[in-house]
Amino acid sequence: MESVRDPELPGRLLRTERDALVPLLRARPDEDFALRTCCPGWTVRHVLAHCGAALMRVVEGRFEEGVFSPESNDRDIAERAEWSNSRVVDELERGMTEAGPVIAKAEHGLLDGIALGEWVHAGDVREAFGEPGAYAGEGLGYALELLAGLTRARRTMPLLARLDGRDGPIVLGADSPDPATYTGAAPTLIRLLAGRPLTGTRYELTGANEKELVFFG
User: Tell me, what's the pLDDT at 63?
Assistant: First the structure.
């Protein structure tokens, strides 16, 4: 199946998530920013600092060698170590507002995955806070659409996803007459492909194992 890119989709996802996440962050006390997330070694504040830095790199076109590597991410977080939590959130809000048009113009959708990664990290934060529906919400439909396009473009392992409450299946990955199949909730599929903890979830997977399906994490 040929994937037709919607250049505006990453920006819609980011703005939708901005409107949900930023008010939540501004309502939390400072001590909640020190909560641990599922990202090894990272607190909520670390995740937010990373996300804001990544988006502002996109906005400002700062893509030096090694950008987005673990070492680069750690430097970005360290550079914000003396910032207040509110300033970290301010930068994140600006990035989620301004990055979409830049991502839309990038050739071949080169930066589309950044928007999806930001949305997943927002889920990591909600989960650390104990919020329900960590990897769900208003942006889920956009995230699934973006995920399907990215996996098809990158020809990852073929997967036919039959999602609870959705009329038709979602096709991910390379074309195949015999794809692996997933049956279950959409947020659990996000967890599976993003390499997030699956404890307490229920789903059926045939033709592949969990590690083979991790798209990013």
Answer: 87
